[in-house]
Every structure is written in structure tokens, then in C-alpha cells.
Design the sequence.
């Protein structure tokens, strides 16, 4: 007693000078104590509601999933109470006897399992006052603990505590800890598992069962003794539970290491339209700590088929969706692969996305790369078709059949020559004639072709720029695919043709709800009739002919389902493509070396074309999709007039035979490039007269298959 009085007297002497300050500080919190909201991991789901991954902050990965107290079993609640605060339901926030016992350390010969702080005090410390080791902070903690118990029930405080306490391995709260250590829901934990979780609270690293199993086992035994002392278990029950082994392998939450879900995450962080915060910091907090649930458009079955089709058809596959490519500039080995995107035309929902060989190997998403993007080759010719048909031309209109043609454009002394036959528009598409589409492009008007691509879904920059970086005009060889695009945009644009000319913005996020179930965001479609129905159907008619008897024959579907599409191959086969669609799905497939501008001949794939490889992947994918699916025909176009010559071709100076004669001459107009926003229309009907120099003109792709 004398010793105790001495300790208390000394303590009062130390406390005395600070009493006024502490009490004053306490009074400022007296009205209402507000515990900070707990950070909670967020979830990403596919279109069927299947979990695809969790999102936590990499800098402070608080893996937490809150659970109500009635969902936490006695095996966990009683173990924690026995270890941390056996008198929790009896005291009023502060347990003086526990404080005095803790002051005399090791009074039970090393068997003490409780600290001086109650669970209520621990809640106050973690949420309000911090863990600074000074007397003022401890007194304020005690005062606030008493006040908190006046404002919250015991069960509310215990629930908050069990969801907030740290268990190691980035796991906060009993649910995340149960998953991390035992790979099961907290409601399924037995006494041995509940006792281990309780034993970790004091020092998660020191009592880590993966690193220090012997220490962890001893600590668990101490918790068992406390459960006996508090009459929650008998000695026989503890003897039985002691035989249960400790966990040996942690179960970390599934991270969103996938191209699709990573793209979703990046959109959530960057775009305020989802209602997750006005600033980047606010969105970061909501995405990683807000406990939101994000429901996406991903079709996991279709995604699996896309990956399987790629793996089965990729040439020289190393077994990891790559093939070896030698960089001719350095002599070093790099790799090639395929990327693809699939869109549902009637909604714009992105159903599958293969951004590369695998997120673990290559994190850059090739499916969404826009600037600089990848040269699409002759897949760009579909936009020439759409421009012509929008202006009243028909598939049977024709150009003279020539072996080559030459152009001299304003502002340059260069003469550009292209090869390929003439004939009807359909026939030139089936042959993917460069000479034919250079002539058709000039007839359609190159600025109008660029605007058409924008209108139906291409968002990449399709205009050359001046020395200050300002857009001037599209290149005259735009119909041959000289400006970079992304597979996602190509799939979106072709989806507009599949959807009778109605453009739907491609999207990945269907709905977002907060942790209470409140809807924060719901996708609302905004379809736009980008081109005439007849135009879209005529494009589909021509591109169907290309799959049946043109460069896209490898894309034919086994079930006989009609398909439409176009191949693309650039100079030296650096980028090879197939973009195609049915009435239900549109898919763009690119193949090449991610490093860029490396001929596939350096991969032992001399003569690689879009019709040979990506078309085969597309055909395999759609054959799997339609293996057990009803055939869906394309809607037929209205009957057209008879074909005739397309007329005079501007800037054509020679060809393998006679140049065309004109039925009319199109006047030159001043061209002002529109904003590159995927919309718009109209504009000039002839190419711009902005100088197109050799230095600014992209390489001319080969076109064709």
C-alpha cells in the first residue's frame, strides 16, 4: 500500500501542471465524438456479378471489408475480448484495475495477456488521439473513452474495433484477417483460428505465424488460458483446439492485374463523371478506400474465348502469347503479340479486351493506345466506303482497271505511285487495291474521310501538324491507314456499321455503388445516328463480300454465321490487322511488336498479312462464339441504282491505262479541320491544299491482306 500511494502521489505531481490544458482540450470534444470512417477496399465485378479483383492503395494498402457484429462468431469475439479486455461489458470506458496491473509489468510471471488500455481506449487512440507516448495524450484518451461510451453502445464500439484493428499482412479488421490467414469467411472460424487472430493484435509482426510459428503458438496458448479463465472454454476444449495447426501460407487479395480491370481503375481515377470526387486526391481516396463496388461490362466467357483464340492462332507462340522478334537496330531480342477489343454494337459495352500477352509480362495496354497508336493499314478503307455511300455512290460504281496510278498533290513536287486493280467498289475492296482506294479517297474527299472516321468512332488524331503542333489536314494517303489508331476505336467504329449507323460510345463501367448500396453512377447510353442506315448497310454488304471472297476469307465463321470485315497490312508488315463484326459483336485484332516499327520478317514471318494471321484469330474467336448460338443475319440494304463510273479523280496524273473521264468536276473548297471529337460531319469534298511533304507524310502501307 505504501508503494502504491507513492506511485500515485508521484503521478499526481507529474499530472498537476497539465490538468488545465487536458480538461480544456476534452471540453472541446464534449458535444459529439466523431470516429473517422474506416478505409475499406473496393471491388470490381464482371457483367455477371463475379468478382474480378479488389482495389487498395498501394502506398497504404488497407485491406478491409467491414462486417456487422452479428456476422462475427463467438470464436472471434470472445477470443478478442479475453485477450484484450475481458471486462469490456462491465467498465465505462476505462478500467482502473487494468491500468494499475499493467503498470506492474510481468506481475503474473510472463503470463499477462492484457494491456492497460480498454478496447474503448484503443478505439479512441486509433481514431482520434494517435499513439504518441506522453501523459497528456493518455489522459485525453481516457477522458474521450468515457465520453464515447456515453454516445455509443458497447456493441457499436466493439463492432468498430473488430473492423478497425490491424492483424498484419495489410489486413485490417477480422474479415480481411480471416481471408488472409485462413482463406475463409470470418463466420466460419473455429476457436483455434479465432484465438490466433486475437493473439496477433498485440504485435502482428512479432506473432506472425508464417515467420515465427513457435512464438505464435505460445501466444495462442496464452489466449486459450484467458478463454478458460473467462469461462468461455473448458480445459478439454482447449486441449482439443491446441492440436489445430497454424496457417502456413498467406492469402493475399486478388489485385486487378488484368488489362480490362486496370483500364477501369484508370478511368475511375481520371474521370470525374463517375461521381467519385471532384479532385484526383478525392477520387483516389474513394477508389482505394471507399469500399465501392464497380460493376463492369466484361463478359468473362467471351474474354476467355478471345484469349484462347489468340493462343491457338498466334504464329511461333512461345507458350506465353508472344513470339520472338529481333530488333534490327539493336540486334536485341524483343517480342510480338496480339491485342484485341470486342464491343457490343447496340450498346457500346466493351465485352472483352486483350491488351497484350499478359499483365504480368507487359503492363501497357495495347488495345487502348491511341496516340501515337498503330497504323491500321487497309482497315481504314472502310471509312472511304462509308464516305462514298453517304454521298450517294453505290457498291457497283467503278473505276477503270489499272495496274498502277500516280498522283501529284498540291504543295509538293513528289509523284506518288500506287499499285492495285480497279473495277467496282466491291471488287476493289475484295482485292484491297491501294491504287483503287487512293483514287476513291480523292473522289470522296480526304477531309471527309477523316471526318467520317471521327463520326463513327475513331478518336485518334488523323491530321498532320505544323511546326507548332497545330493540326493542318489529313494526309492524302489516309485511306491506306497511315495515321495511328487503337484496336478499341477500330472496334467501336466498325460497331457503328453493324448497328445501322448508330454510334454508341464504348464504355466499361455499368454501375458503381457505395458501401451502403447507394448508386453513385449508372451508365446512360446516348446513341447518335452518325451515318445513314443505308450507308451502314452498304458498308456491311461490301465487307461481307470481302469475308466471303476477298482478303478476309480466313475470318469466315464455322457455323455459317455471316460476318463482315476488312484486313490491314502496313509497310514491311510492321502492323497487321483484322477488324470485323456480326450484328451482335465487333472485334478489332492487331498483331505486331509492341516496341513498334519492326517488320515481322524479323520474327521469321515474311509476308505476314492481316488476312493471314489476325483474320485467322478473328475467325477462331467467332467460331467459338457462334458454336452454339443462333445465326443472326445482317439487315439488307435497300436496292440501289445500277453502277457507273465514279467520275474524275482529282490530282491523278497517270495510270497503267487511260485515266478516268469525268461526269462532273468537284470544286476545291477551303478546308478547316474540325475538332477531333468523334462527331461532326459535312466539310469539304476535295483534299486540302495544305502542303503534304515527304518529311510529314507517314510511310505508305502496302494494303491488302
Sequence:
Amino acid at each position: 500500500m505504501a508503494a502504491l500511494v507513492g506511485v500515485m502521489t508521484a503521478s499526481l505531481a507529474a499530472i498537476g501542471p497539465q490538468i488545465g490544458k487536458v480538461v480544456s482540450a476534452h471540453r472541446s470534444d464534449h458535444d459529439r465524438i466523431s470516429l473517422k470512417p474506416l478505409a475499406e477496399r473496393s471491388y470490381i465485378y464482371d457483367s455477371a456479378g463475379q468478382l474480378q479483383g479488389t482495389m487498395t492503395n498501394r502506398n497504404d494498402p488497407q485491406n478491409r471489408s467491414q462486417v456487422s457484429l452479428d456476422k462475427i462468431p463467438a470464436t472471434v469475439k470472445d477470443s478478442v475480448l479475453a485477450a484484450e479486455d475481458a471486462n469490456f461489458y462491465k467498465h465505462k470506458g476505462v478500467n482502473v484495475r487494468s491500468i494499475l496491473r499493467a503498470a506492474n509489468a510481468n506481475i503474473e510471471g510472463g503470463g499477462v495477456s492484457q494491456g492497460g488500455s480498454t478496447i474503448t481506449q484503443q478505439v479512441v487512440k486509433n481514431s482520434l488521439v494517435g499513439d504518441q507516448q506522453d501523459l497528456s495524450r493518455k489522459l485525453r484518451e481516457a477522458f474521450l473513452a468515457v465520453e464515447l461510451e456515453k454516445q455509443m453502445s458497447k456493441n457499436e464500439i466493439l463492432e468498430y474495433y473488430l473492423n478497425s484493428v490491424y492483424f498484419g499482412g495489410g489486413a485490417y479488421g477480422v474479415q480481411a484477417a480471416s481471408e488472409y490467414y485462413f482463406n475463409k469467411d470470418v463466420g466460419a472460424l473455429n476457436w483455434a483460428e479465432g484465438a490466433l487472430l486475437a493473439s496477433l493484435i498485440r504485435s502482428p509482426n512479432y506473432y506472425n505465424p508464417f515467420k515465427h510459428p513457435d512464438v505464435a503458438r505460445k501466444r495462442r496458448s496464452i489466449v486459450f488460458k484467458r478463454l478458460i479463465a473467462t469461462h468461455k472454454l473448458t480445459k478439454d476444449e482447449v486441449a482439443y483446439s491446441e492440436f489445430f495447426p497454424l496457417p502456413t501460407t498467406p492469402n493475399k487479395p486478388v489485385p486487378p492485374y488484368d488489362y480490362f480491370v486496370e483500364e477501369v481503375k484508370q478511368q475511375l481515377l481520371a474521370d470525374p463523371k463517375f461521381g467519385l470526387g471532384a479532385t484526383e486526391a478525392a477520387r483516389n481516396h474513394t477508389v482505394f478506400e471507399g469500399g465501392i463496388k464497380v460493376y463492369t461490362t466484361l463478359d468473362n466467357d467471351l474474354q476467355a474465348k478471345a484469349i484462347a483464340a489468340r493462343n491457338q492462332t498466334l504464329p511461333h507462340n512461345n507458350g506465353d502469347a508472344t513470339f520472338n522478334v529481333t530488333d534490327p537496330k539493336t540486334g536485341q531480342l524483343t517480342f510480338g503479340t496480339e491485342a484485341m477489343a470486342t464491343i457490343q454494337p447496340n450498346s457500346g459495352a466493351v465485352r472483352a479486351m486483350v491488351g497484350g500477352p499478359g499483365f504480368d509480362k507487359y503492363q501497357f495496354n495495347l488495345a487502348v493506345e491511341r496516340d501515337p497508336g498503330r497504323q491500321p493499314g487497309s482497315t481504314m478503307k472502310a471509312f472511304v466506303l462509308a464516305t462514298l455511300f453517304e454521298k450517294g455512290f453505290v457498291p457497283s460504281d467503278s473505276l477503270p482497271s489499272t495496274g498502277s496510278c500516280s498522283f501529284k498533290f498540291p504543295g509538293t513536287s513528289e509523284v506518288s505511285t500506287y499499285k492495285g486493280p480497279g473495277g467496282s467498289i466491291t471488287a476493289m475492296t475484295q482485292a484491297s487495291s491501294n491504287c483503287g482506294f487512293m483514287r476513291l479517297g480523292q473522289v470522296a474527299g480526304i477531309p471527309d474521310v477523316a471526318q467520317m472516321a471521327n463520326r463513327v468512332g475513331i478518336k485518334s488524331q488523323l491530321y498532320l501538324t505544323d511546326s507548332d503542333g497545330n493540326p493542318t489536314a489529313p494526309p492524302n494517303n489516309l485511306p491506306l491507314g497511315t495515321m495511328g489508331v487503337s484496336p478499341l476505336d477500330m472496334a467501336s467504329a466498325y460497331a457503328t456499321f453493324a448497328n445501322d449507323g448508330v454510334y454508341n460510345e464504348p464504355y466499361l463501367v455499368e454501375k458503381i455503388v457505395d458501401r451502403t448500396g447507394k448508386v453513385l453512377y449508372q451508365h446512360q447510353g446516348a446513341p447518335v445516328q452518325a451515318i445513314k442506315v443505308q450507308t451502314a448497310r452498304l458498308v456491311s454488304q461490301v465487307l461481307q463480300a470481302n469475308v466471303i471472297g476477298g482478303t478476309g476469307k480466313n475470318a469466315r465463321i464455322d457455323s455459317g454465321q455471316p460476318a463482315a470485315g476488312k484486313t490491314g497490312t502496313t509497310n514491311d508488315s510492321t502492323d497487321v490487322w483484322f477488324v470485323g463484326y456480326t450484328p451482335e459483336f465487333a472485334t478489332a485484332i492487331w498483331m505486331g511488336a509492341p516496341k513498334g516499327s519492326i517488320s515481322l520478317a524479323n520474327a521469321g514471318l515474311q509476308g505476314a498479312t492481316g488476312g493471314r494471321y489476325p483474320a485467322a484469330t478473328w475467325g477462331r474467336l467467332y467460331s467459338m462464339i457462334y458454336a452454339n448460338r443462333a445465326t443472326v443475319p445482317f439487315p439488307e440494304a435497300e436496292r440501289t441504282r445500277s453502277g457507273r463510273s465514279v467520275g474524275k479523280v482529282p490530282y491523278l496524273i497517270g495510270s497503267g491505262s487511260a485515266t478516268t473521264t469525268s461526269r462532273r468536276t468537284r470544286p476545291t473548297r477551303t478546308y478547316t479541320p474540325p475538332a477531333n471529337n468523334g462527331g461532326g460531319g459535312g466539310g469539304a469534298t476535295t483534299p486540302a491544299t495544305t502542303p503534304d511533304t515527304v518529311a510529314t507524310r507517314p510511310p505508305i502501307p502496302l494494303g491488302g491482306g
In short: The first strand starts at residue 42 and ends at 45. Residues 60-241 form a domain with the Penicillin binding protein transpeptidase fold fold (CATH 1.10.3810.10). Confidence is low (pLDDT under 50) at residues 1-29, 105-115, 658-703.
